[in-house]
Amino acid sequence: MHPIVHTIVVGIISYLVLIAIIRLSGKRTLSKWNAFDFVVTIALGSTLSTALVSPKVSLAQSITAFLVIVVMQFVITFSSVRSRAVKNLIKSQPTLLLFQGQFRQEAMAQERVVEAEVRAAIRENGIADVERVHAVVLETDGTFSVIPDAGGSDSALQGVAGLSSRRV
């Protein structure tokens, strides 16, 4: 088969199979990225790329590779829900960057976040006064959660690194 025809045929079939596999694997495969999700996505992209341009890799091998990657992703995420050790291996812990209007410089330095980024996240949430923010958390997917100062409990902050050390 001519290399261009191979790329077209294998590309169309591989693309459709990859979409079907991802749809069947569930929403978790398409969630916001953490390091683990990033690796899975890169592996799927690399496999698709190899399938498209390498006539030495058969369509069956490509589909098998897609299935292996998605099944491993499922097994690891399934295990992480049931095992704290596995969860800690693949997911980082959210980090408290600002608490009760006070920046947590050590946590920000460790996470390589500057005040300007935290202030931008606060502004994006329509808050003009840093002192009116109860907490800013760097989530496991790299996004910022801004919790306005509404009084009440810290129950939403359970499991966030740095909260217990800041309690009075």
TrEMBL record:
Residues 82-150 form the YetF C-terminal domain. Keywords: Cell membrane, Membrane, Transmembrane, Transmembrane helix. Coiled coil: none annotated. The chain crosses the membrane at residues 6-24, 36-53, 59-81. It is a multi-pass membrane protein. Residues 12-78 form the YetF-like N-terminal transmembrane domain. It holds the Pfam family YetF_N. The keyword Transmembrane applies. Its main location: membrane. InterPro entries: DUF421, UPF0702_alpha/beta_dom_sf, YetF_N. GO terms for cellular component: plasma membrane. It is found in: Cell membrane. Belongs to the UPF0702 family. This is DUF421 domain-containing protein. The lineage of its organism: Bacteria, Pseudomonadati, Pseudomonadota, Gammaproteobacteria, Oceanospirillales.
